[in-house]
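lol forgot to send this yesterday, sorry. struct tokens for the thing we talked abt
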């Protein structure tokens, strides 16, 4: 079994902090539960609509679940700017109100 760092590098193509790994893992679980996308397919470069086949209704559910899981509020206008998993991870990581994961 690969280490978390090895899995992170494989899914992202980069080294990352534990916090960013935890955010990616959390988003992957949410996307899996809502849209049925296998966790290992939720990669940093994946586009929600084009690569993960997440439609607008499912995206609303993903956002609501992410807000609950990461204890933050994502304004609608910000949601429209988030098109990739990387952008979502960056947004959550940079949110001042994010609680420890």
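and heres what i got for the seq, position by position
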């Amino acid at each position: 079994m690969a280490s978390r760092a090895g899995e992170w590098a494989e899914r992202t193509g980069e080294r990352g902090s534990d916090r960013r790994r935890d955010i990616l893992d959390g988003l992957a679980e949410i996307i899996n539960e809502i849209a049925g996308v296998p966790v290992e397919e939720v990669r940093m470069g994946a586009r929600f609509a084009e690569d993960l086949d997440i439609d607008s209704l499912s995206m609303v559910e993903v956002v609501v679940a992410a807000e609950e899981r990461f204890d933050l509020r994502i304004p609608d206008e910000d949601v429209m700017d988030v098109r990739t998993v990387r952008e979502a991870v960056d947004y959550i990581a940079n949110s001042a109100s994010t609680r420890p994961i």
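The chain has five helices and no strands. anyway ping me if u want another try
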